[in-house]
Each structure stands twice: as structure tokens, then as C-alpha cells.
Amino acid sequence: MITLQTMPPLMFGGLVLAMLIGFPVAFTLAAVGLSFGFLAIHLGFFDMNFLQAIPGRVFGSVLSNELLLAIPFFTFMGAILERCGLAEDMLDSMGQLFGPIRGGLGYSVIIVGFILGAITGTVAAQVIAMALISMPVMIRYGYNMRYITGVLAASGTITQLVPPSLVLIVLADQLGKSVGDMYLGAWGPSVFQIALFAGYTFLLGVFKPDHVPPVPKDARTLTGWALWKKCLLGIIPSAVLIFVVLGTMMMGLATPTEAGAMGAVGAIVLAAIHSKDFSTNGRKILIIGVIAAGIGTMVGIFMTEGLIFKTAFALTYFAVVWICLEAVRIPELRDLIKQGYETTMRITTMVVFILIGSTCFSVVFLGVSGGVWLEHLLTSLPGGVWGFLIFINLFIFFLAFFLDFFEIAFIILPMIAPIAQKVLTPVVGADAALIWFGVMLCVNMQTSFMHPPFGFALFYLRGVAPKEVKSSDIYWGALPWVGLQAIMVVLVIAFPITVTALLDKPLNVDLNQIRIDVPQMELPPLDFGPPPKP
User: Fold this and answer.
1) pLDDT per residue over 391-444, tens digit each?
2) What's the distance, CA 142 to chain centroid?
3) How far is CA 53 from the centre of its chain?
4) Measured between alpha carbons, how far is 147 from 49 in angstroms, rounded to an integer?
5) Cα–Cα distance between 377 and 393 in angstroms, integer?
6) pTM higher than 0.70, yes or no?
7) Is 170 among the domain residues?
């Protein structure tokens, strides 16, 4: 006998079973949600009018959600930058800079992965590009095969955590928080994650130096200022783009959508920089534009009016228009832009269909009291707050074997976000609770790309690795890095300050306890006698 209490677990079981069969997730979500919706109507749990909430929720979450408009812009930015040659230049220069020390090529992969993660936000392309460029070099100089596969996969998945990650945008939307706050919260764990990766490489260099040997001196073609110049030419334009995109958004000068639009234009500019066919005049205009953009952004922090700001803005606008016109004249860049459009369309369409399917599922799930069932389940766990966090993270870790981050965010987060707000508020405060929770899950969901047997980063590596690289090396090589990511999850749970340090500190004041005492004023006595004679 199916009762209202048994409907929520049955819905979860049906969803898991349908996904194990292999149907596309977006259509599985919609099919399971609507099937159980009609079953609930048949059993009298609600009537047909209740399902009218689905179109309204879809319209509100997809068609009128301005935050999700940022996803196509950031996707386009990543699609352009992943193909423009930026990764090749940075890996080559960083590899020669760190090459003389043990693990130098590993350090260069980690650092470049962090930088590219901050400007591309695409795991697949980053893993593939870095593997194609770095793997043959690391194999040539005798690096351990399992270290090679592990560091390449891990440095690609850091893209999920480093702002402006698409994952963070989706998490902010589903949790109802500011994207800027989510980005601020993610910086601490991002830096600590890179430190863990670098620390593991350092320990290998100490205890197993044959696993990460230095690059021979005769293989280093650049030295001195020429090497530093090449490194700076790779880093500075990327840093300017990161500063403009993230800085303007975090400082309140631009919305996420506007920042994403600036990033999309900036990607074309960086692609033009790395094009050999870019004209000399274009490079001069580019220098003017970069200087103007820097001045305009810095002045804009303090003022939005004035001659300096308007002049800088005009110069920036002129430079960007000139560079874009130069770019579309170059056949190589004009194909590049078309590929960026195609990638953006494909990813955006996938996100929209998953969002529609998850809306169908969640509306029906809440209609059969799934929220009450889930809250009772999670709040009755032993261990209080810590028991809740441990269970949720183990649950997400398990789901990551089968689902990617978009699916987890759209299916699970809307259900557990209210519970997380209630449970975590006493620990870090109401304002920071969901930011801490969202970044924690983002760190956890990195593992969805890494752990066997379904880690997509491992599939990407297998697809581009040479034949001498065994699949067992790829899988075994990933395990230490999954362990490092799990350690980062533990650190975020144990030390919330890693997330909340950059957030605005709330005032620890109980407004209900505030009392304003108004002093009593001595008023002169009223005189009701006859008026004075004129």
C-alpha cells in the first residue's frame, strides 16, 4: 500500500533506477516527476491543479532568471580561451621557469591549471589541452606515469572551484545567494587546494625524487629576462581579465551577467593577442585599451563620474571595438569564434533541459511532503551539525559516481538548502551559512570528475593519452589526488573561516534586545486663566 509517507523514498528509488538504466538525466527527471505526479493524483494526495505550478516554476527559474544569463557568457569565454593558444604558451614558459627543480613540471601544471581555471571554467577542455601539451614532455623527462595522470586530472578539475566557475554560479542561483559572495567564499579553499597539490608534489620530490626529476639543463631553451618576459606576457593579460571580470562584480560595479559579457569580449581580445596574424596597429591599440581599462576600473571604484573616468571608459570602448573588428578579419579567429558559439549553445541547452526536468521532479516531490520527510531524516541524524555535514558530504560523494555537478545542483540543492540554512545558522550565522555550505559542496563535487570508475576527467585523459599509458595508471594515479580533495573537504568543514574570512562580518546584535530610552522632559504647567487685556 502506497501512502503519503512512502512516496518520497519511492521517488528517489525510481530516479536512481531510471538513471542506472542509462536514460538522459534531464528527461529522466521530468519522466519520474510527472509519473509520480499522476500517481499522486490517482491516490488523492493532490489534484491536477497542483501540477500547474510546474510551468510557473519553469518560467521563473529559466526564462526570467537574470542570473542564469551569465552562464552563456562565461561558457563562451572559456570556449574561446581554451582554443586560442594561451595554455600552450603558459605551460611552456612555466615549465622552463620551474624545470630546474624536482617536480618543476608538476608545479607548472598546477599553477597553470589554477590560472586557466580562473579564466576558462571548463574542466573537459582544460584537462584535454593540458594533457596534450604536458603529458609527452613529462613522459620524455622520466616523470612517474601515475603522477602524470593524477596531476593533469586534478589541475583540470580545480576549474570547478576557482572563480568564475560555472558551478559557483549555479550554486548561488539554487541557494538564493549572491554570486559575488560565493566567489569570495571560494577563494580561500581554492588557494588551499593548490597548496595541498603543491605540497604533495614537494613531498614526492623529497621521498621519491625519481618520480619527479628536474628537467635537464640542455632542454631549457630560455633563461634570464627572455624567460621572465614570456611568463609575464602569459600571466598579465590573464590577470587583467580576471581583475576586470571578477573585480567589477565583487565590488558591485557590474552584475554577473554584465561581468560575463565583459569576459566574453575579453576572451576575444586575449585570442587576438595570441594570434600571429594580429596587426601591429592592433597591438598598439590593445596596449592603450589595457591601460585605459585599468585606469577606468580603479577610478570607477571610487567614482562613477568625472572626466578621468569618462575618458578611460571611452578609450577602453574604442580599443575593444577596434580589437574585435581586427579579430573578425582574421580567418583563424573567425573559425574560433564560431566554435565558441557552438560550444556555448550545447552547454546552455543542456543546463536548461536539466533545470526543466529537475523542476518537474522537485515540484511533485514537495507536493507529496518530500521536504518534510527529508528534513526529518536529516535533522534526526546523530552528531547534530557535524553529523549532518558528514552525511551530506558522503551522500554527495556517492552521487558524484553517477551524476555531474549540474545534475546534483539542480536535483539535490533545492531540497536540502532550507534544512542547511536552519542547521548551520548557529555555527556561522544566517548570512554565511549557505555560502559555507555551497562552497563545501563545490569542493566535494570536484571528485565527481576524478574518482573511478566514472570520473569524466579520467575519460578525457584516456581519450588523448598515448598508447603506452595504461588505463590502470590513470585510475591508480587519480586516487592520491582524490584523497587530497577529500582532505580539503574536511578542512572546510572543520574550519569555516576558510570560506567566511573574506565575507562581510555580520553585526552580532540581537535586535529584539535593543531598547531606546527617551528621557522625560519637564514641561511648563498649562495656564487656563483669562487672556491678557490688550
Assistant:
1) 888 888 877 776 667 777 777 787 888 888 888 888 888 888 889 999 998 888
2) 34
3) 30
4) 57
5) 15
6) yes
7) yes
